[in-house]
Every structure is written in C-alpha cells, then in structure tokens.
C-alpha cells in the first residue's frame, strides 16, 4: 500500500468553490482501480494549501489513474482553482507508532 500526497495550492478566495467542485469530481477518483480511500484537508498554518492524501494499493495503480481519461476530467474540473502547480509525492504505507510501542524498528518497514 502507498499513499499519494498532493499539496494543492488554491486561491484563497476560491477554497470553498474548490471543495464543492472536488466533491463533484471525486467519484472519478473513487472508481479507479486500486483506490482505497482519501482525505482532503486544509493546512492549519496555510489554509490556502489543501492536502489530498490518497491511499492506493500500488504505485502502478496511481500511475494508471494518472494516465486515464478519468484523471484528465478530474483535473480539468480543479485546475482553474490552483494558484500554482500542485506538488505530488508518494510514501509507503506503514502503521503509526503509538507511545505504547517500545520497538519502533517497524516505522520504516523493517
């Protein structure tokens, strides 16, 4: 499992519109092969930066979605609200370490 983390800079005056449009195009994301959930959240220190975190079964599943017509339509609905180019990167899925866990060797998939 991997997580796609997309930092989405949105014009301040269009944040609410962006969230409404995102809700309209989200089904295109949700029906993608390998999609396993997402969250969209405003930054606390920088509310004009929305953070989209998508859980994918594999990197290939995400890359396949990016190459699809559904992705093109998904982005077409959102791109007018961006104040700059989004930044996207991926991390490997790992469990959160809690204060009760003494052994943190699994934090990096070890």
Automatic annotation (TrEMBL):
Residues 1-75 form the ABM domain. The keyword Cell membrane does not apply. It comes from the Bacteria. Pfam families: ABM (PF03992). The keyword Mitochondrion does not apply. Coiled coil: none annotated. One of its GO terms (molecular function) is monooxygenase activity. Gene3D superfamilies: 3.30.70.100. This is Heme-degrading monooxygenase HmoA. Keywords: Monooxygenase, Oxidoreductase.
């Amino acid at each position: 499992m991997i997580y796609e983390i997309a930092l989405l800079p949105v014009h301040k005056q269009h944040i609410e519109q962006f969230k409404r449009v995102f809700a309209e195009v989200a089904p295109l994301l949700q029906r993608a092969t390998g999609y396993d959930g997402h969250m969209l959240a405003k930054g606390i220190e920088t509310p004009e930066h929305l953070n989209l975190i998508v859980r994918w079964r594999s990197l290939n599943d995400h890359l396949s979605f990016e190459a699809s017509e559904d992705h093109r339509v998904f982005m077409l609905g959102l791109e007018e609200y961006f104040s700059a180019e989004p930044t996207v990167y991926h991390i490997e899925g790992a469990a959160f370490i809690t204060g009760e866990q003494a052994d943190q060797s699994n934090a990096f998939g070890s």
